[in-house]
Amino acid sequence: MKTLFTSLLLLMAASPVWAQPGKAASYKTQQTIPAVQLVSWNKQPFFSNKVQTAGKTLVLVYFSPTCSHCLEFTESLTGKLKQFKNVQFLFVSAYSVEEIKTFAITRGLTKMPNFTVGQDPEFKLGGFYELKEIPSIFVYGKNGKLKKSFDSKVKMEDLIVSANE
């Protein structure tokens, strides 16, 4: 219980945007990734805004492990990984950690050092991105600022260009 209480306090302290009623931020008004606590596929907590390494582009993919478009997108993406230069990927889902883990392992994402896969247990990132469909993809430049967003109909060539700019 103490760990849960401490985690909640840390989450609230690290995410002041979420603590302000009536002032919910979104990706449209805040150009950086918010500090939302996520849970990795191996059940370790981490913050969404700590994934991006300085000097690298981050591609955030909000997905569902049961969505056929998400499966197709992931297969297409992993088939073209060599075309993504100096890019990190953060795959996030509101589904259970077990479903996310199965998705990540069967797709080989857990063996790729430039992939982080996690659960958004309270759908805070989902709310921040005002999700209307999945997968939804958000490209953050090397400076940590949002460069481009894509919906499920993204052409892989367009994502590659955006991620490598």
From TrEMBL:
The keyword Signal applies. Residues 1-19 form the signal peptide. This is Redoxin domain-containing protein. It comes from the Bacteria. Residues 27-165 form the Thioredoxin domain. Keywords: Signal. It comes from Phnomibacter ginsenosidimutans. It holds the Pfam family Thioredoxin_8. SUPFAM superfamilies: Thioredoxin-like.
